[in-house]
Each structure stands twice: as structure tokens, then as C-alpha cells.
Write a structure and sequence with these properties.
- The chain has about 130 residues and is mainly β.
- It has one domain: Sandwich (Jelly Rolls).
- It has 1 helix and 10 strands.
- Strands 1-2-3-10-5-8 form a 6-stranded antiparallel sheet, with no helix packed on it.
- The protein is globular.
- The two termini are about 20 Å apart.
Length: about 130
């Protein structure tokens, strides 16, 4: 059994802050835990517009607080993301997420993140970092 708090990863290598400080992701469950998925709490600053494309991962995102707009790059379709909304990137979907207010999200990745990843130029995480 694994029991861990958000505070226990704060300030460690599993507390990743984007180089532009527009988002912060605290990786609560990682590849090392052997679950086959990872769980992160991600906070996105108001006004941030993230261009993302997870080429190596599938992602589920549950909005805990805040408001944003998710846009599918392929068809331009937009979705309001508010507390209680989940979106599932089940086809390695290219997307943008624009934060209308600060957002707090619960993010689940498969395969699991190592916990140290940051986005590359395409908005993707690399394959698993061991």
C-alpha cells in the first residue's frame, strides 16, 4: 500500500515548474510506484495558453477548480472546462488549453510519467525517462 500527500512531493524533484512559470505539476504517483499510470496535481496560471500534444501518453484531466477553454487543434472544436469536468485525450489529440482563471487539475497519464518530465517544443512529454 502506498499513501502519499501532496505536501510530501512539494519542493522535491516531483514538483515540476514550467520554465515560463505558467504551470506547476506535482507528481503524486509516478512510474516508480508500479501502478501503470501516474497522477499529478497541475495548477495553470490565469491567462496561460498551453499548446499540447502528448505523442507517447494518453491523458485524463479532471478540473477541480478554475475555468478554461480546451480546443481540439484538428477540428477547432472548443469545450468549456469548469469544476467537475473531465476530458480524455484518447487519441494523442493535439490541443490547446487556455486558462480563463487559475485552474487546478488532476491529471492521469498512461503510461506513467517518471515524474521529472517537462514539455518539449511540440508540447509533448518524451517517452519514459528512467
Amino acid at each position: 500500500m502506498i499513501v502519499r500527500t501532496l505536501d510530501s512531493v512539494t519542493g522535491t524533484d516531483f514538483d515540476v515548474i514550467a520554465h515560463n512559470s505558467l504551470w506547476r505539476s506535482r507528481r503524486i504517483c509516478t512510474h516508480a510506484d508500479g501502478m501503470g499510470f501516474s497522477v499529478s496535481e497541475t495548477v495553470i496560471e490565469e491567462g496561460a495558453k498551453l499548446h499540447l500534444h502528448y505523442k507517447h501518453h494518453l491523458e485524463g484531466v479532471y478540473c477541480i477548480s478554475g475555468h478554461g477553454v480546451l480546443m481540439s487543434v484538428d477540428d477547432g472544436k472548443k469545450y468549456n472546462i469548469v469544476p467537475g469536468t473531465i476530458y480524455l485525450l484518447n487519441n494523442h489529440d493535439k490541443h490547446t488549453l487556455s486558462a480563463c482563471s487559475a485552474m487546478r487539475l488532476l491529471c492521469i497519464f498512461s503510461p506513467a510519467l517518471s515524474g521529472r518530465e517537462t514539455h518539449d517544443e511540440s508540447g509533448s512529454y518524451p517517452e519514459l525517462l528512467e
